[in-house]
Amino acid sequence: MHKETSYLGIDLAWGRKNFSALTLMMGNRVIQTVYLQSDEAILDYIYAIKPDKIAVDAALEVKNESGTRAVERALLKDFAQYKLGIYPINKKIMDRLYGGNRAEELFARLHAYTLRENLFEVYTHATIIRCFTQNSVLPYKRKKGRTTAFIKEQLTLLQNFLLDATCGLEPYDISISNTRELKIIEDKLDSIVCAYSLHRAACVGFDSYDGLLVVPKASNHLTTDLETV
Prior knowledge:
- The protein starts with 5 loop residues before the first strand and ends in a 13-residue tail after the last strand.
- Helix 6 runs parallel beside helix 7 (179-204).
- The chain is α/β, with parallel strands linked by helices.
- Helices cover 39% and strands 16% of the residues.
- The longest helix is centred in the last third of the chain and has 26 residues, at 179-204.
- The protein has helices at 39-49, 70-78, 91-98, 102-108, 124-133, 148-165, 179-204, and strands at 6-11, 20-26, 29-36, 53-56, 119-121, 206-209, 213-216.
């Protein structure tokens, strides 16, 4: 009997004082979402559940001292029509703002997972465009000029997309949530998108950027190889 692949999606906070959301999926079924703070708590959780593959919305490999990574440049070129934006990632910025690259340091301690084999980067906005909105960026992130009511509308759209695409997701009551609660919901939904990215990539194929960053193809791009990610 074929064993269903387990995926762990991680919306990793760049700073160690902030919380990160992690979601475990079996195929397209949401099993559990947790909200953890310390590196040790995250590692302990991964060791406990032993997912087959991990998808992280964070930079797992940064070699450039300045500027932008090649994977971001390639991704932005492919998604230029959607006006997709990505913060520049380089060693100088990571050192100045965060005292180093938390993601790179954290996963270097995780010896059971190898970059480009069972550990990948994903970008939630790109997955949402490919799998859900099809033609536009979903503006669910808190930014200047976006009201709480607007954020609630966009998070509800994202949650509805995920409810249609996955099983086992218990919906969050977005309508009555305050600003702090909305940020937690955003993080948790992002972690589901991360895990779903690898599941969907295995089902319909994917675009790979340096073997590191994976973006599922649109559903009309089918592949017969379900275990290439």
